[in-house]
Amino acid sequence: MYDVVIVRYGELALKSQGVRNLYERILVRNIEAMLKQENVSFSRVYREWGRIFIESDDPNAAKAAADVFGVVSTSSAIMVEADVDVAANVCADIGADLIKDGESFGIRARRSGKTGLSSTDIGRLCGDAVWHRLESLGRTPKVDLSEPDHEIFVEMRQNRAYVFTDTVKGVGGLPLGTQGKMIVLMSGGIDSPVAAWLMMRRGVKIIPVYANNAPFSDDRALERAVKCVEVLQRWSPADPIKMYDVPHGSNLDTFLTLCNKKNTCLLCKRTMYRMAYEIMKKEGADGIITGSSIGQVASQTAPNMHAEIYGLGIPLYHPLIGLDKTEIIDLARRIGTYDISIMPTSGCGAVPEHPEINAKFDLIVREEENLDIEDMVQEAVTNAKSFFVKEK
């Protein structure tokens, strides 16, 4: 029966007119791309004030659109002319199919623009139509506006009316591509894909950078990271994700040879920031995303995180900083990366047995005085490989 999907958004409505128009156009583009990616048939996607509509009778359209960043909710609906009698008749048809004898129902009506009737009037007239139809079928109708067994929604707009019964919760956020692009340090563990997804949800396109620790790690670590990005690609249907594989093993070997071994992880993270920063400049990106969560591992204590960034002046974003591991795992499962992230690898063979957990803010700066750190970073970035992943 459904022939259209209503797409609702939230924050976009608070923007200025020019910004709102731009964001809506990007959102329409992303919805179209998601529908095509999910093989959902549709005629067109178009905008009206406060809403986006998808002309489609495909039962999967509402769910696919709900997975587009920026979408708050969707509903498969029946579209009719903006006439309350016509809408009421559709409500009665739905009620006859849906409401059994003795069950209760409620009409949820709203209007947009000048329709000549209030929302209360529309709800009353549609409710009367359902009541009388059920009576004519020999059923005993009940009205319950608090906790009905069934709800029928009517949205009366200037030129059309929409009737529906269900709402699919959307992923929310801002349309992907409205907030520029950033580098994400992608390890393939549980945290970094979730951090990337959260920033994508805020409208940021991502460029994953994998610091390849070989020979201190095996090929499974890279494969795991790539598979995680393949999952994230599904959430970015309009734009392919470009990924970098940056050799980092020789850097680790240098740290172990010339520096205090307990500082290896701090030197590693600081150097990864430097490498990511060079790629950020090359790609015209605006920041670097990490999967750091305060206190979660030895390298992520507050003193260590201070030492990691001291004197660098690099724009870093830590979307997981205040989340605990359980919250991060729940998000990983929702996104679809958790099962990949727990796949076994050899781990990193350069991790010291007793890493520094309370570094002085300038500790690593003093360690770097023994290194040709800029040359190390430039060599790694020069030998980096880039490629586009495919959605899985």
TrEMBL record:
<dbReference type="GO" id="GO:0052837">
    <property type="term" value="P:thiazole biosynthetic process"/>
</dbReference>
<dbReference type="InterPro" id="IPR049962">
    <property type="entry name" value="THUMP_ThiI"/>
</dbReference>
<feature type="binding site">
    <location>
        <position position="269"/>
    </location>
    <ligand>
        <name>ATP</name>
    </ligand>
</feature>
<keyword id="KW-0963">Cytoplasm</keyword>
<feature type="binding site">
    <location>
        <begin position="185"/>
        <end position="186"/>
    </location>
    <ligand>
        <name>ATP</name>
    </ligand>
</feature>
<protein>
    <recommendedName>
        <fullName>Probable tRNA sulfurtransferase</fullName>
        <ecNumber>2.8.1.4</ecNumber>
    </recommendedName>
</protein>
<dbReference type="InterPro" id="IPR054173">
    <property type="entry name" value="ThiI_fer"/>
</dbReference>
<dbReference type="InterPro" id="IPR049961">
    <property type="entry name" value="ThiI_N"/>
</dbReference>
<comment type="function">
    <text>Catalyzes the ATP-dependent transfer of a sulfur to tRNA to produce 4-thiouridine in position 8 of tRNAs, which functions as a near-UV photosensor. Also catalyzes the transfer of sulfur to the sulfur carrier protein ThiS, forming ThiS-thiocarboxylate. This is a step in the synthesis of thiazole, in the thiamine biosynthesis pathway. The sulfur is donated as persulfide by IscS.</text>
</comment>
<feature type="binding site">
    <location>
        <position position="291"/>
    </location>
    <ligand>
        <name>ATP</name>
    </ligand>
</feature>
<dbReference type="GO" id="GO:0004810">
    <property type="term" value="F:CCA tRNA nucleotidyltransferase activity"/>
</dbReference>
<dbReference type="GO" id="GO:0005829">
    <property type="term" value="C:cytosol"/>
</dbReference>
<dbReference type="GO" id="GO:0009228">
    <property type="term" value="P:thiamine biosynthetic process"/>
</dbReference>
<dbReference type="Pfam" id="PF02926">
    <property type="entry name" value="THUMP"/>
</dbReference>
<keyword id="KW-0820">tRNA-binding</keyword>
<dbReference type="InterPro" id="IPR020536">
    <property type="entry name" value="ThiI_AANH"/>
</dbReference>
<dbReference type="GO" id="GO:0002937">
    <property type="term" value="P:tRNA 4-thiouridine biosynthesis"/>
</dbReference>
<keyword id="KW-0808">Transferase</keyword>
<comment type="similarity">
    <text>Belongs to the ThiI family.</text>
</comment>
<feature type="binding site">
    <location>
        <position position="300"/>
    </location>
    <ligand>
        <name>ATP</name>
    </ligand>
</feature>
<feature type="domain" description="THUMP">
    <location>
        <begin position="59"/>
        <end position="167"/>
    </location>
</feature>
<dbReference type="Pfam" id="PF22025">
    <property type="entry name" value="ThiI_fer"/>
</dbReference>
<keyword id="KW-0784">Thiamine biosynthesis</keyword>
<keyword id="KW-0067">ATP-binding</keyword>
<dbReference type="InterPro" id="IPR004114">
    <property type="entry name" value="THUMP_dom"/>
</dbReference>
<dbReference type="InterPro" id="IPR014729">
    <property type="entry name" value="Rossmann-like_a/b/a_fold"/>
</dbReference>
<dbReference type="GO" id="GO:0000049">
    <property type="term" value="F:tRNA binding"/>
</dbReference>
<dbReference type="Pfam" id="PF02568">
    <property type="entry name" value="ThiI"/>
</dbReference>
<keyword id="KW-0547">Nucleotide-binding</keyword>
<dbReference type="GO" id="GO:0140741">
    <property type="term" value="F:tRNA-uracil-4 sulfurtransferase activity"/>
</dbReference>
<keyword id="KW-0694">RNA-binding</keyword>
<dbReference type="InterPro" id="IPR003720">
    <property type="entry name" value="tRNA_STrfase"/>
</dbReference>
<dbReference type="GO" id="GO:0005524">
    <property type="term" value="F:ATP binding"/>
</dbReference>
<dbReference type="GO" id="GO:0009229">
    <property type="term" value="P:thiamine diphosphate biosynthetic process"/>
</dbReference>
<comment type="pathway">
    <text>Cofactor biosynthesis; thiamine diphosphate biosynthesis.</text>
</comment>
<dbReference type="InterPro" id="IPR050102">
    <property type="entry name" value="tRNA_sulfurtransferase_ThiI"/>
</dbReference>
